[in-house]
Amino acid sequence: MSYTSAPVPAPLPAPATAPVETLFPREESQPRAVYDAIRDELLLDGRSRLNLATFGTTWMEDEARLLMTETADKNLVDTEEYPQVADMEARCVRMLADLWHAPDAARATGCSTTGSSEAAMLAGLALKRRWERRRRDAGRDTERPNIVAGANVQVCWKKFCSYFDVEARLVPLAPGRLHLTPETLGEYCDDRTIGVVGILGSTFDGSYEPIADLCLALDGIQDATGHDIPVHVDGASGALVAPFLDPDLLWDFQLPRVASINTSGHKYGQVFPGLGWALWRDADALPAELVHHVDYLGGEMNTFSLTFTRPASHVAAQYYTFHRYGHAGLRRLHLESRRTARGLAAGIADLDLFELLSDGDELPAFAFRLTDRAHALGLHERGIALAMRARGWQVPAYPLPTGMTDTWVLRVVVRTGFTPRLAALFLDDLRNAARTVMRATVGVPQELGALALG
Ligand SMILES: Cc1ncc(COP(=O)(O)O)c(C=O)c1O
């Protein structure tokens, strides 16, 4: 008996222009007809490889795709039924612990998540519980906890604060200071600070926050006030870039103050969207009361997550990419991306119409803006983004966070699959887009016409 294509009645012939239904369908339809209709509609979505807005992986090898398809029917949480994939998850945690210099990688504490956002919730909760325990032990209240980070934090940290009743103390940006810097910490940290979030790879411009210097500043604060404040590193992108490209950079568990680290396997871990990781430096950094022991489907397990059922595909794919590429392969891929990012950033700066806020030298991503002269002529970053969209490129235009909200930027994220050839085509299109926007806005003024762009 086949379960794949049961005979069903042919659908009614569709009118010449069928409206897009929103009511629950009453009848069955043929699988192929439904598949074709959905596929056609999806053509209207952008092409993911031209999406320079996302840090998410948009290219994977066929073997990894195949493994994802073959494990999509397995529930990651059914460890009794699928012990191998559960073991692969544990092995990935140990590999990351090794990569990030955890004191005892063999007994690493961590788990996979749906992305860095879930990992941030778990890490934030651990910081909160540890702080509460310390306060209670000292006979003090546990009211009004706060967390300190730069205003450039990704929205997941604002969500953490609002979901779990923690005050978000976000240090505003300033011209020339696009992320958290050590000298600002003293003003923002106090005895109710559960932790400082350092970002390895700011979402807004791809720059690394100086994690070692932040730790040093917190050492100073501890000496002066007695407040012992741990650091969580949000390495959504950078924790799977820096170990390969910047091995001398001090940012991970080698720094005793770093209590936990998160990353997105689906960013520079080369797995399609749906995977993150949260790791703690040791079992002490993860309060035991947060780990739930459950008996499920004949097995016993410890879970620490905000979700339950998840497909095994992403863990299988991550295990593949770690083994397939290893240290040397990820270095090769990310070096290519960094080279492409730097080359493209330099090409954009040469157009003489834009200025760079970062140059792709840390994460393979950079932000740029129109020059003041171009703004004075009425050009705007949104117009450039729209004109690029007409060619299929997705380049976000957005204002910077608190402290610099008047500054709009465009951002390019380079990932595996954005080849030097695509970068050259992108630059041509950017030049043409700028020309089109200029013509539409101001005609072609003499002063701009003379530029490389003209
Ligand atoms: C620094 C940072 N943290 C957290 C996130 C959220 O990650 P995810 O999309 O994996 O939930 C992002 C996403 O871009 C990010 O850049």
TrEMBL record:
**EC number per UniProt:** 4.1.1.15
As its record notes, the protein acts as a catalyst of: L-glutamate + H(+) = 4-aminobutanoate + CO2
Q: Which GO terms describe its molecular function?
A: aromatic-L-amino-acid decarboxylase activity; glutamate decarboxylase activity; pyridoxal phosphate binding
Enumerate the UniProt keywords alphabetically: Decarboxylase, Lyase, Pyridoxal phosphate
Which cofactors does this protein require? pyridoxal 5'-phosphate
Segments passing through the bilayer = none
Key word Lyase present: yes
Top-rank taxon: Bacteria
List the InterPro entries: Glutamate_decarboxylase (IPR010107), PyrdxlP-dep_de-COase (IPR002129), PyrdxlP-dep_Trfase (IPR015424), PyrdxlP-dep_Trfase_major (IPR015421)
N6-(pyridoxal phosphate)lysine-modified residues are where? Answer: 267
Give the family from UniProt. Answer: Belongs to the group II decarboxylase family.
User: Mind telling me which GO cellular component terms the entry cites?
Assistant: cytosol
Report the source organism. Streptomyces tabacisoli
List GO BP terms, alphabetically: L-glutamate catabolic process
Name the chain's protein: Glutamate decarboxylase
